[in-house]
Amino acid sequence: MTTDSDRPAAVRVDTSSGEAIGIPEGRSLVFGRGPDADLTIAAGRELSRRAGVISAVEGGVWVANLSCTHALYAVTNGSSTRLPRIEAGAEPSEGWFVRSGTVLVGSRAMVVDGEALRVTVCGRAGRLPGPDGPGALVPAPGDSTLLPLYLDPNTKLFLVALMWCRPWLVDHTRTTPLPRTPEIARAALETTGAHYELERFETQPAFRDRLSARVGEHLKVLRHKIAARGLVREGTRLSDEVVVNVLIEHAVVVPADLRRLNDPAWCSRQEDLWWTRRP
Length: 279
Prior knowledge:
Blueprint: E1 9-14, E2 20-24, E3 28-32, E4 39-40, E5 52-57, E6 60-65, E7 73-76, E8 79-82, E9 96-98, E10 101-106, H1 108-112, E11 117-121, E12 137-139, H2 156-170, H3 181-191, H4 195-203, H5 205-228, H6 240-249, H7 264-275
Parallel strand pairs: 3-4
Antiparallel strand pairs: 1-2, 1-11, 3-5, 5-6, 6-9, 7-8, 7-10, 9-12, 10-11
């Protein structure tokens, strides 16, 4: 560990188990679930053995993902960012910089389960937060500045994305045909246990068309978000296959999300979202 108890902490790291670690300016801490990490996290396999690095630098804290196989997220002000991967020994210009306040860092499971690391910029005595406000997450200069896409699992948009990606989350060869809009709409009905609506979907074309149109709007939103964040090259046609590939490659949806389909609480939440107001 590169922390130093004899120097004042510029950054404080709190774990969900109650452990607190101070990091002086110019020092860093590597965390993960492996024994060779400075801070070992009791997490599942969604977290790498050497998952990420937290560095106290002048004016804030730098956080980055060390893993080439697992996604790592930073959450601040209600917004989640997928951290770019860096090579060992990289400079802070290749990561993400938090100017002030607190940011949560961890795998998606750690974030969802409330077990993310809590990283706080201590600052100097009497120093006010920077102009970007408490917990401002600022992309450092360089190429690794894209703001990846995050979807709240407790939204209709997430369910649509999950149903769209499901065949390729199961079939790693990605040769299974992807569902079209009516098929995604039907899957939403099945997931939420909407048996009455499912019967209407099969027998009433007008209802089927309205629900499919709603799903189609969600697909447009996903395409727009992907284009707006520069996750594909300019001019790339956002076909179903391209969009689903982006969603999977950027860990917007992951195979572990399929377990939600067997989670009664999550399905009930989705039912409330979809059917509180009927189309």
